[in-house]
Design a protein that fits this description.
The protein is an alpha+beta fold and about 180 residues long. It has four helices and five strands. The relative contact order is 0.15.
Length: about 180
């Protein structure tokens, strides 16, 4: 089931990476690696990427990054667990909150998984630069990936669930008045 959920989002993730990272073309797939399902990104360099004055990654070079499928379902689990456990007196309010959470989760997952994969590629750039004695500027993409990996993957669905609960309560209160 988890592979089907993530597989249905791969074109969306690919589009986000493509818009965000113009130096390469992403190709996303789900693979089995050591018994686990992984999202694998193969990044094909479009134009040479300068790393140092003497070295650049040539066009056509391929780099790979990956992440566990289950790791990327954490936002979904957190958000729906919060909504299901939140005290509510009306079943209808809970159903509205659950339904409203779906599009919010698509946005949240679009703010996490693609940037996690692209961030891994950026780490490769940073490591190559360090090997050549160059310090590269740390881009926002890498800062965002670190935020996602150090708690953002929890914070975003909690905020999303809060928004969903608020909107559901607002809809119920407007219908009753």
């Amino acid at each position: 089931m988890s592979n089907y959920i993530i597989a249905s989002l791969l074109p969306y993730f690919s589009w986000i990476i493509d818009v965000t990272c113009s130096e390469y073309t992403p190709m996303l797939s789900i693979i089995r690696y050591q018994g686990d399902s992984m999202i694998q990104m193969q990044a094909i360099v479009v134009e040479p990427i300068p790393i140092s004055p003497l070295y650049s990654i040539p066009a056509g070079a391929q780099m790979k990054a990956g992440t566990h499928v289950l790791h990327n379902l954490i936002p979904l689990l957190i958000a729906y667990a919060l909504i299901l456990s939140w005290p509510m007196s009306l079943v209808r309010e809970r159903l509205i909150a659950l339904c409203m959470m779906a599009p919010i989760l698509i946005v949240i997952m679009g703010l996490s998984t693609p940037y996690l994969l692209a961030g891994h590629i950026e780490v490769l750039y940073q490591n190559l630069a360090n090997q050549h004695g160059i310090t590269r500027e740390v881009p926002f993409l890498l800062h965002w990936m670190i935020f996602i990996e150090t708690g953002g993957v929890w914070l975003l669905p909690i905020a999303g669930a809060g928004l969903s609960l608020y909107l559901a309560r607002l809809m119920i209160s407007r219908r009753s008045s």
